[in-house]
Amino acid sequence: MLRFHFIPRRAAVLALFVSVASGVSVAGKEFNLPTPHPAPTYPARDQHTDESVTVAVDPYDMPDKAAIFTTNYADEDMLPVYVVITNDSDETVTLSGMKAEFITASRTKIAPATQDDLYRRLSHPKGPKARLPIPIPIPAGRPKGTVSTKAVDEMQRAQFSARAVEPHSTQAGFLFFDINGIENPLPGAHFFLTGLRNAKGEDLYYFEIALEKYLSAPQPEKAHPAEPPAK
What we know:
The chain is of the alpha+beta class. The chain has six helices and ten strands, in the order H-E-E-H-E-E-E-E-H-H-E-E-E-E-H-H.
């Protein structure tokens, strides 16, 4: 004999409210660019004491860190790397000629993805599509292969865009690297940054950061430090 269990009206209303509230919370999630700490406080860094400039990188390779994004870049084979530049000198450092490169342990050189690269990747999801028994019409107002306005706004705000670092200040932003086909991109990898110039227009010495510094750091240090270490 079948038995039907009925939920009391008050409990049913409460369950519905919680369900709807959760849905709104997920749907209403917004991207917020992390507040940078001074570059010398990050484990993976290259500090030029003679030039008073430090560059640090913080890969967002773990789900808990990548949760700040509304887009799942890991599913798109894109590695977000937070780049932090601190200028402790008394002169402005210009970044107009800045060039970054991610070099894997196998010496594969990867340039940062452009906004167009990201758009193309996000508008063409990878993997075969399941065949449906009948044609399914595409909803009006959302052409196939487009990227949501929210995703476009996120990638624009996330990408490193500073053109200079003022004296005694820090600039930061994300660079995205295409790691398609690379199973473990961080072990043995290096990050290079060139093209930074001082107030005289002279190039600073290139910055090289081994990602092993990040991988070997104690877990709490991999997150953004709450406070700079004591001097």
